[in-house]
Amino acid sequence: MSLPSTEQLISWRRELHQNPELSNHEFATSERISSWLQQSEIRLLPLGLKTGVVAEIGHGEPLIALRADIDALPINETSERPWKSQQPGVMHACGHDIHTSVMLGVAHHLKQQENSLPGRVRILFQPAEETFNGARQLIDAGALDGVQAIFGMHNAPDLPLGELRTRGGALYANVDGFTIRLQGKGAHAARPQEGIDTIVIGSQIVTALQALPARMFSSLESVVLSVTRFTAGNTWNVLPQQLELEGTVRTHNDAIRTAIPDKIRTLIQGIASGYGAEATLEWIAGPPALINTPRWAEFALQLAQESGYRTRVASPQMGGEDFAFYLHHVPGTFVSIGSASPYGLHHPAFDPDEGIIAPAVNYFSQLAPRALALVSHRSETGAQQ
Ligand code: NI
Questions:
Q1: Closest CA to 320 of 347, 293, 290, 284
Q2: What pTM did the predictor assign?
Q3: pLDDT, tens digit, 9 for 90 and up, residues 237-247
């Protein structure tokens, strides 16, 4: 078996890109990944997953994990590249095809040094990152059992090729959603005094919610609250009886995250009851903030520098990433690597530079054995990871 060439890595990426599949429907993708791995006799773990693949290379202890996400988005690709999506309305617009081909390359590199690997490396090809439930599926299936550290990457279209960033502590946010339902009383638009106008109350709720982060939490804490849907009414001369608002709250601090639903509830019920309406809040808890283990973040940056990346300490972001679930169970770190796309993530013309792939393969191929050696050393010396 020979190491995959850059052309091979790119051809895997293009095949994945042409055949994107939505979250939890990555059937053909999983088959492709399995067959590419099995061609090189890389062993797969029988975890009974519906979609997704878990491979393992090496023997004995310790055990670390690498993760790539494999799902695509419901977006119609507008690029004119010959390898553009062949599935109308589905597109690898977040570059998970890039992440997958990187980890395929890493698997082949590690396979070649399997006998000298100081432990085992498990590679998680994870489904359903975009819907934030893939990591939990893998954890429930046992993919994290015995893992002592985990690493992953996301391409960053706003960074140039050859740049890698991460930071210890919070990198991405807690991602929660909410739905607010208002019950008023319908009336003729010409006689509002006979009804309870959900549109006026809803508007006041939107405005009040905008003040909540700034007036209930320290300005030194990061809190974003966005209302993203405001739905009521059917016509021009009727005041609607019901109204629905939807939105998201992003935070880094768990105490603030926990406090927010009650504050929203009190606020909306106060406003609604002032008008005789009723307001209810449905809180939809999403993935937790992604908190990198500081010493693994330092390790990842140091190694990146040694392998030729320009490195910077990342700024925390308000987006979400379901890699966070793994980091709630085991230490590790997640890194951003420049992919220099003129269009951002989730844009229909997103077009990452494939030059990101080969250096990232080299990087993680070095990172895995170095991390294994460090884990062994730390457990021998009794140090906390
Ligand atoms: Ni993504």
A1: 290
A2: 0.89
A3: 999 999 999 99
